[in-house]
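Re: that backbone. Tokens:
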């Protein structure tokens, strides 16, 4: 334990996940409650012990399936008496509420906060497809008034452009992106909850249909139904609980430029770089201390950005780092996205990565468990205009 912004007072004591699948036909609230109850039980608590609750994205999200349940729906369903609660879309990636929960327990506003994220995009899209849920079919957001007339309505379009620039400037190749996709699929094959588990070769990857050059089908995450939850506790309140508490060593919350997909001073960087910079400012730990990394892969290029931003390789050198895929393999020096990430495991959004970090540090990964008792994990979530990071340890 190195102190950090919470002086060791904020810890994770439990994690839970609902059923995960394609077009499950279950409601978002049902999946959310399942994950929340599993996280509470995993921490050795009862619902009446939980006095805080937090979630992303909060109410008012127009895209069907993007949010499975609100904080108040979960509070009502479980009869929670909350001394502190929050939900927000304007936050440090999708783990922003978990970071805010760390602040809450450190300040004594709550003892045990359940933080959840749920989606049911696969069921929501079942009848009409992906395009039917983009922006609720209403008026375009302001930034899309500029890109929409050119048909660039998806994050696949917006991210393809900086990916092309990075490739042009630094020699990143499609095979390097493929190493990320193949690693995800290989790890998903060891995860019984993953959506896609069949083996995939580089030839399969390169032959897949193009979505937005250079991003092909296997560079894009898999919409699904599911929910994940963790319990953030005050260390003093965690005494006697069954889990070894995971210390939140540091968090990355920085944003140094405007929140934008395409207007940074250097378009070969993203908000991930700002979040990562502040993560390392707040801890004595260094990138070399990290045993396992759970890095956002809504698109494979976002993992490229997180690898560089977190200092695992120099700016512009990610291609060399990824070459052959051995460094990020589950038996490599930096295992990445051990559950299969979102590319093969399913789009559980940022909280899915935090859940997997807990699984690995507690040694509960089963066939996909990283060898050698890992004791430091980093989580980097979000892409493009926003990002957030968290550093956990068993120390």
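Recovered sequence:
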């Amino acid at each position: 334990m190195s102190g950090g912004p919470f002086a060791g007072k904020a810890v994770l004591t439990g994690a839970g996940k609902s059923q995960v699948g394609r077009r499950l036909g279950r409601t978002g609230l049902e999946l959310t409650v399942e994950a929340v109850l599993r996280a509470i039980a995993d921490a050795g608590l009862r619902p009446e012990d939980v006095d805080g609750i937090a979630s992303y994205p909060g109410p008012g999200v127009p895209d069907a399936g993007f949010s499975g349940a609100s904080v108040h729906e979960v509070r009502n369903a479980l009869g929670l008496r909350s001394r502190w609660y929050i939900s927000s879309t304007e936050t440090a990636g999708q783990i922003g509420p978990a970071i805010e929960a760390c602040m809450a327990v450190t300040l004594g506003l709550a003892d045990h906060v359940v933080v959840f994220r749920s989606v049911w995009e696969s069921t929501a899209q079942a009848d009409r497809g992906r395009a039917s849920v983009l922006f609720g079919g209403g008026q375009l957001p302001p930034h899309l008034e500029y890109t929409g007339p050119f048909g660039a309505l998806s994050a696949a379009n917006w991210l393809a452009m900086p990916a092309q620039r990075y490739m042009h400037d630094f020699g990143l190749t499609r095979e390097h992106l493929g190493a990320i996709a193949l690693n995800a699929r290989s790890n998903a094959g060891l995860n019984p909850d993953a959506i896609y588990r069949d083996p995939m070769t580089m030839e399969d990857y390169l032959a897949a249909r193009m979505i937005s050059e250079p991003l092909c089908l296997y560079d894009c995450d898999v919409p699904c139904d599911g929910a994940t939850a963790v319990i953030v506790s005050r260390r003093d309140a965690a005494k006697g609980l069954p889990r070894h508490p995971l210390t939140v060593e540091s968090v990355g919350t920085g944003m140094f430029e405007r929140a934008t997909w395409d207007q940074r001073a250097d378009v070969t960087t993203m908000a991930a770089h700002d979040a990562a910079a502040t993560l390392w400012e707040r801890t004595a730990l260094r990138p070399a201390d990290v045993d396992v990394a759970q890095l956002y892969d809504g698109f494979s290029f976002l993992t490229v950005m997180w690898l560089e931003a977190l200092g695992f390789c120099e700016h512009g050198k990610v291609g060399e780092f990824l070459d052959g895929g051995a460094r990020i393999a589950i038996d490599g020096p930096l295992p990445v996205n051990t559950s299969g990430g979102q590319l093969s495991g399913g789009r559980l959004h940022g909280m899915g990565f935090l859940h997997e970090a807990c699984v690995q540090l507690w040694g509960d990964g089963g066939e996909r468990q990283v060898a050698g008792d890992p004791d430091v994990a980093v989580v980097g979530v979000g892409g493009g205009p926003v990002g957030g990071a968290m550093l956990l340890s068993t120390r």
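The longest strand covers residues 225-234. Residues 155-170 form the longest helix (16 residues).
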